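Human:
Focus on the backbone:
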Amino acid sequence: MNWLAAYAKKFRGGKRVPTKAATREVLWSAIGGVLGILAVYEIGKFETLPVLDSSFLIGSFGASAILLYGAPSSHFAQPRNVVVGHTLSAIVGVSCALLFSEFPAIAAALAVSVSLAIMLATNCVHPPGGATALTAVIGGEQIHAMQYWYVISPILIGVLTMLVVALLVNNLSRHRRYPEFW
C-alpha cells in the first residue's frame, strides 16, 4: 500500500500558484495574438478557397499564438521549436493519415505519439505540434486532399508568418526579448 499512498501524494502538487501576469504583459500578449492570427488570416486569402472555407487557420495556430505572444521566453515558444515542431508533426500526421486511412483511431493516436517522440528526440518540442499532427488525421476531406502540401500550406507558411509577427511585436516592448535561442 505504500506505493499507492506515494502515488496519491503526487496529486497534491507541491508548488504555489504563480502570480498573475502584469498588465503590460497581458497587453503585449493580446496585441501579438491579434496581429499574429490576423496575419495568418490575411495570408490565407491567397489560397484558392474562400478563407472561411479553407483550412489555413487551424486550431494549433491558436495554441502557438498563446506560446509565441503570451510566453515568449518559454522553451516551447522558441523559433526552432515552433518551426521544426510543427513541420515534423505535420509530416508525421499526413503520413499516419495516408498509411492508416482505414483505421482513423490508430492513425490519430500514432500521429500524436510519434510526433511527440520525434519532437523530444530532436529537442524541438512545441506542444501545438500534436494538434497539427492530429488535424492532418481528423481534419476532413479538405485536409486529406492536400496530402503533403498540408506541410507547406497552411503549416509552414502559417508558422513562419506568426514567427515574423512574434519577432516584431515581442521586440517592440522594452521589457521583452525574443528569441531566447534559435
